[in-house]
């Protein structure tokens, strides 16, 4: 993707993550990418990182406690208030990463024609053949599902950032 200037008027890009309710996977992805960006000293490349859900079931809520526990256990701060995707998000963000195929299809259906966002699975940045590209919803499972999601998100984030830094994202 050719990097277009974001809302800030510079060459930084904006990134958002989307899952169903915006309380488990997407706020975790937001926190992990923000942390990895800082750790890898690549903050000069990203203007904004956010997340939202395709549904508004949990709008106004904080992340699921297991998301918070998993992030904190891995040294990643998380602070987010859930919200639903808005039509303006398709112009606001350069990339919108879906956690699974259902989220991807919902986003593509909602996306206004001609909007700038590149919508794709975040798992497209998987470079480990043993790792699933789909980030399964851990909501109805136990802590292992959240830790599995964290490992995937950390791997995808670091791969995305490496590619972004080399202009191949």
Walk me through this protein's architecture:
This protein is of the alpha/beta class. It contains 5 helices and 4 strands; from the N terminus they run βαβααβαβα. The chain has a 4-stranded parallel beta sheet with strand order 2-1-3-4. Helix 1 (25-39) crosses helix 5 (143-165). The longest helix is centred in the last third of the chain and has 23 residues, at 143-165. The termini are close together. The model is unreliable at 1-9 (pLDDT under 50).
Summarize this, please?
The protein is α/β, with parallel strands linked by helices. It has helices spanning 25-39, 65-73, 89-92, 101-110, 143-165; strands at 13-19, 46-53, 95-98, 118-121.
Furnish the topology, listing elements before pairings.
Elements: E1 13-19, H1 25-39, E2 46-53, H2 65-73, H3 89-92, E3 95-98, H4 101-110, E4 118-121, H5 143-165
Parallel strand pairs: 1-2, 1-3, 3-4
Helix pairs in contact: 1-5, 2-5
Proportion of beta-strand residues: 5-15%
Instruction: Please tally the helical runs, counting DSSP H or I stretches of 4 or more residues.
Output: 5
Largest sheet: 4 strands, parallel
- Gross geometry: globular
Q: Write the H/E string, N to C.
A: EHEHHEHEH
Q: What percent of residues adopt helix (DSSP H or I)?
A: 25-40%
Side by side, the strands of the main sheet go: 2-1-3-4
Mean pLDDT: 94
- Classification by helices and strands: alpha/beta
Query: In terms of per-residue confidence, which ranges show pLDDT below 50 for 5 or more consecutive residues?
Result: 1-9
**What is the tally of beta strands?**
4
């Amino acid at each position: 993707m050719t990097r277009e200037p974001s809302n800030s008027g510079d060459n930084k890009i904006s990134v958002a993550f989307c899952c169903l309710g915006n309380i488990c996977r997407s706020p975790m992805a937001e926190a992990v990418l923000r942390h990895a960006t800082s750790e890898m000293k690549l903050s000069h490349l990203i203007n904004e990182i956010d997340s939202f859900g395709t549904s508004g079931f949990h709008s106004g809520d904080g992340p699921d406690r297991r998301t918070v526990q998993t992030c904190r256990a891995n040294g990643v701060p998380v602070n987010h208030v859930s919200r639903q995707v808005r039509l303006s998000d398709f112009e606001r963000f350069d990339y919108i990463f879906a956690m699974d195929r259902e989220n991807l299809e919902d986003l593509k259906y909602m996306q206004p024609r001609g909007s700038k966002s590149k919508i794709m699975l975040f798992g497209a940045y998987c470079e480990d053949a043993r790792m699933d590209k789909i980030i399964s919803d851990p909501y109805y499972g136990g802590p292992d599902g959240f830790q599995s999601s964290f490992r995937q998100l950390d791997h995808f984030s670091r791969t995305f950032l490496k590619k972004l830094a080399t202009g191949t994202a």
